[in-house]
Structures are given as structure tokens and as C-alpha cells.
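Model: Ready when you are.
Researcher: Fold this.
Model:
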Amino acid sequence: MISSSRPRPSGPGKCFDQPLRLHDEAAVRALPQSQIVCTSTLPYRDPADLEPARAAGRLWDIDTSHDLMVSEPQAVAGFPGAGGGDGDNGGGLMADL
């Protein structure tokens, strides 16, 4: 048991107290992944890196500056699988790269 004079976090704060250990690389790679990217960066991205998300319908773009979470936090949070919203945020589903 670990004892400490400081209070231990509970709820979401436990992410700072409990390390995440991933031991099965194949299982981690099999997890569904979404890509939410800036439209302006698409010409500089390796299409092979984006292909799995595009093929699964999980690749979206937002026409904004480099740091999506700073410039368009509501849009990013609204994507399906991002924790809220219905995905209708003005970003485009990337059908063709």
C-alpha cells in the first residue's frame, strides 16, 4: 500500500496516479482510431497513415489553423467518438485523398 501526505485523486484525476500499461502491441493497433486533421495539413501527410481511418469512415478534417483543440475545440469535441455531439460540426468526411 502506498501512503502519502497528499490527497489521492479520484475520478478522472486518477489518470495522473495510475499508469496505463499496454503490453500487447497487436491488440493496441487493432483498436479503432479516428483522425481529425486540419484541412491545410493534408498535402503534407502520408496517405498511408490516414488510410485505415479513411477506409473505416473515421477521418475528418476541419478548415482551421494548426492547433485544432485551441482554435476549434467545440468542433473537435462534436465528432462522433470524441465524447459528444452528433458530428455535425462543419468538418468534411474525407472520402478521397
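Researcher: Now this one.
Model:
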Amino acid sequence: MTHAMLKGSNVPLDAAAVRAVLCWTPGPGVPDVDASALLLGTDGRVRSDEDFVFYNQPRHPSGLVRRLSKKRVPEGLTDTVEADLAALDRSVDQVVLAASSDGDTFDRVRDLRILLYDAGSGAAEPLAVFEVRPETGEETAIICGELYRRGEGWKFRAVGQGYPTGLIGLATAFGISVDEAEEAGGAEEARRTDGEAAPDAHGAAADTSASAPTTAIPAPPVNAPAPPPVPPSPRPPRRDRRPRTATPSPARPSPRTATPTAARPSRGRHSRATDSPRTATRSPPRPQRPRRTRTSGCRRWGRSSSGPDGLRPSRP
């Protein structure tokens, strides 16, 4: 019996190994879709980068989770992941089943769905089917569903959670360290391998030449012609610079000649400045004072009242 799953619903699984098949309808303008799986621990993160199974690492080191080649079926194209649930280590608590688009968003992918089969029984009828629809139209990676432990068994839940950051953003959200250069190179190599003819459900080789290839091969880059050189901007015309004629400046007057002045007469020490020179007048000689004379051991000074000239007569 097939369970038609709604987003968020779950269903118990009795199978020991399951095969999750992504299916979509190809066509012009429809991007290619790749399936991947992440093995998570109880903390919801991968234990190491080896727990990421995708086109560049299609097989887990344990061999219990593996990605198969793409196939063309009457319903469209498929990409498949198988998991041996009963043999997984107890440290693996969850297996996330995801899809990523190449070159465009999932709103261009038509009829995307995931079908879950019992890998041990080989039954043609799926156990569960979930129609995956993008919510915003900007998703480039989607978690389609998850297998998780419940007691001693396993369950499948329909998720439908999208990521606008592609497979790299989805993987890093679960603890994967992704080198973008290696991821791009590995993606191209893996898609080349998936583009080869693969056997269909009846064992015959699929006719890939009758339909559009699943991966667009980029055309070699064309060297764009160099842009023409930009002509230099025209310079403004130069103004006619005529030589200036020096205008003679008026002659400066010659320096003044000092007019000699008449020599002024010399003046005496006590003479006053007058218009006419004056001659210094000599004053009359002052009378000489009499000399002192010694007479008989005594000094006599002064003038004598006798004598016509007022001098004391000298003694004979």
C-alpha cells in the first residue's frame, strides 16, 4: 500500500533497507536535479564530512548509504539514494534526503516528487510518495524527507524545507565544510558521468540522444573585443597672447641739490645770538693781591689805612 504523504506527516517503515527515488519531468528551461543524503547524529549534525553522500562523494565509507546513477524512465528523470537502515551504526540517528537544482530555482522544476521503495523486497509499488513543492520560488536546495529512528525501528517524514543558498548552504547548515572550488569541479565531473547512457527499468540502454541532455555543457568563453580607445577630450583654443608694449613711466625728478647756507658766525661762550656778529669784550685785569711777607716772626694781613694806594708800605 502506498502512502500519499503531506508535508510534515510521517509513516513507520518495516523495511530493513530503502531506496529513495527523486523524479521530475525534464524539458526546455528545466534545471537538472541531484539527490544527496546526510547522516546525522543525535545532535542533528554530521559526525564528519564523510557523512555527506552526493554526486562528488557518491558512497559512504561504510557502504551502507550510496547514490546511484540517474535514469530515464517513462515518468521522467530519476536520481536515487539507497540506505541499509538496519545495518547503520547506532550513532546515526537520522538520514536526511535532499535535492539540489543546477543553474536555476525549483520553481522551474516540474512534477518533483520523492518515492520511497523497499529495497529488499524489490516491489514495484512504493511505500510512500511525497509531492515536493517550493514555497517561495527561490529555493535551490530542498530537504524532501528524512529517515529517523523511533525506538527500535525507523520512520519516514515528509519535510519540504527549502534553502536559497543551494547545496552548499544546506550542507553547511548540518556542519559540513565545503570547498566551493572542489565542489564545483566535482559536480561537473559527476554530471558528465551521469550524462552517459544508463540502463532503464527493463535493462535496456536508454536513448539519451533522442532527448535533451540532463546537464548543459557550458560554451567556451568568448574573448570579448576590447573597447575602442576613448579619444582625448579637445583642448580649449588658446587665446592670442600678444606681447605687451612696455609703457615708459614718467621720469622721476632728480634728487634735490642741497642749497648751501651761509656759514653762521661762531658764538662765544656767553654771547647771545644776534643778527650781527659781536666781538667778545675783554674785561679789565683784576688787581693782584699783595704777597704775604714775614716780619719778625709775625704775620700782618690786611690793608693799611696809610698810603695813597691803600697798600701797606713795606718796611725798610
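Researcher: Key takeaway?
Model: Confidence is low (pLDDT under 50) at residues 196-222, 273-277, 295-305.
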